[in-house]
Design a protein that fits this description.
Number of strands: 8
CATH topology of the largest domain: Lysozyme-like
Bound molecules: zinc ion
CATH architecture of the largest domain: 3-Layer(aba) Sandwich
Structural class: alpha/beta
Oligomer: single chain
Radius of gyration: 17 Å
Largest sheet: 6 strands, mixed
Strand order of the largest sheet: 1-5-4-7-3-8
Order of helices and strands: EEEHEEEHEHHEHHHHH
Length: 228
């Protein structure tokens, strides 16, 4: 396992014991450097944290014990559950993000993420379908980890899910699409354009415009058909 460093964050609480840990949530820090990110996540006034932070070289910091509820998801929703922090393990990847100069995620960082994630998925028996990005559970508010995050590579290396799509012929009306998005787990209260954008960031990063095109419809169909 990659080198582990411990920094204790005071920003956590107790998990809701009636909620099972069944999700791995991936973020970027959106801050200029690892030091700034660590400082922020360990500052009691900031009230933010994650279980892990991985820097660009693949060094893993543990900030909060997995048994505790870290504060990374904020206002969020997936498949009927709004207490995303109780149901998930949260991993932050150091990256300046859209605000400070978004950069590709280095191989060393992705490798460490894969290794850590595989271990977490095994220990909690988390489904690959529930390896999600912050933008999936908070589409109106969040962009992370964003279009430069290589979900496809991660899924092909055993962490997360990549849908096999087949082209669709006809266009689909927005009521049908909405139903499908709800069935997949996306927030039914979010604007459809925000949810489509979140799907594009995750599964179709080459064009992010929030528009429902044939490509998006086939991705949505695949996701819905494979929803457990
Ligand atoms: Zn985030």
């Amino acid at each position: 396992m990659t080198v582990f460093k411990r920094r204790t964050s005071p920003n956590f609480g107790s998990r809701n014991k009636s909620i099972q840990i069944d999700m791995l949530l991936i973020h970027y820090t959106g801050l200029p450097s690892t030091e700034v990110s660590l400082k922020r996540m360990c500052d009691p006034e900031m009230e933010v944290s994650a279980h892990y932070l991985i820097d660009e070289k693949g060094l893993i910091y543990q900030l909060v014990a997995e048994k505790d509820r870290a504060w990374h998801a904020g206002v969020s929703y997936w498949a009927g559950e709004t207490d995303t922090n109780s149901r998930s393990i949260g991993i932050e990847l150091q990256n300046p993000g859209h605000e400070w100069g978004y950069t590709p995620f280095p191989n060393l960082q992705m490798g460490a993420l894969r290794e850590l994630s595989q271990d977490i998925l095994t220990r909690y028996q988390i489904s690959n379908r529930l390896v999600l990005g912050h933008s999936d559970v908070a589409p109106a508010r969040k962009k992370d980890p964003g279009h430069l995050f290589d979900w496809k590579w991660l899924a092909k290396s055993g962490v997360g899910y990549w849908p096999e799509t087949s082209p669709v012929k006809s266009s689909v009306d927005s009521i049908t699409i909405r139903k499908s998005l709800n069935n997949i787990g996306y927030d039914p209260r979010a604007k459809i354009v925000d949810v489509i954008t979140a799907i594009q960031r995750h599964y179709r990063p080459k064009r992010i415009d929030g528009k429902i095109d044939a490509d998006c419809v086939s991705i949505i169909n695949a996701l819905e058909n494979d929803t457990p």
